[in-house]
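Input structure tokens:
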């Protein structure tokens, strides 16, 4: 592959650098929105005519079209044949379910929940998400079809007021995020008990 040294096309007259791509792994990824219709047409899933098997929108979403994708489907989708010919392995991924999204929020070393807990810990405040809140965040993400990237925006919106008000209040010991907090309510705040002298 011939690559411009500057990485762009600002100077079309510049020399290209040839790169041997033999030992380079290329990964193409994306949502490929609309390719499911191409696969359905190829498989004969049309709902025209008498005695056809008409599927509801939910049934269509549940059926996993992406596992049946072929190189021809990618060409019909609009990817140039020269590029498709360089993709030897095609793998279709299923949409994430609620359990997977909850794992993404809580389990990795730098998960979103752990990041926000660490942020509040700087001010000596313990942050807790109850199970119903995590379930609801995952449900909202599935409903909005934003994938794992959508988790941060939902959590950010739920914590927005609390993040700005909590650091200035020295009496807060713990903040609990509930389903109501995520749906627009206030977080449950536990204050420090004053020690009697």
């Amino acid at each position: 592959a011939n690559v411009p040294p500057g990485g762009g096309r600002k100077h079309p007259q510049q020399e290209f650098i040839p790169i041997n791509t033999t030992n380079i792994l290329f990964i193409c990824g994306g949502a490929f929105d609309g390719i499911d219709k191409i696969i359905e047409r190829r498989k004969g899933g049309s709902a025209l005519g008498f005695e056809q098997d008409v599927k509801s929108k939910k049934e269509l979403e549940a059926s996993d079209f992406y596992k049946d994708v072929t190189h021809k489907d990618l060409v019909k989708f609009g990817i140039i044949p020269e590029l498709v010919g360089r993709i030897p392995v095609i793998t279709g991924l299923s949409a994430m379910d609620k359990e997977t999204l909850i794992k993404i929020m809580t389990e990795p070393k730098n998960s979103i929940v752990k990041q926000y807990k660490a942020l509040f810990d700087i001010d000596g405040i313990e942050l807790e998400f109850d199970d119903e809140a995590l379930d609801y965040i995952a449900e909202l993400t599935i409903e909005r079809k934003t994938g794992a990237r959508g988790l941060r925006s939902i959590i950010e919106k739920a914590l927005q007021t609390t993040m700005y008000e909590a650091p200035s209040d020295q009496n807060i010991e713990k903040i609990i995020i509930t389903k109501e907090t995520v749906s627009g309510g206030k977080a449950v705040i536990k204050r420090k008990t004053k020690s009697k002298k």
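The chain has nine helices and five strands. The radius of gyration is 25 Å.
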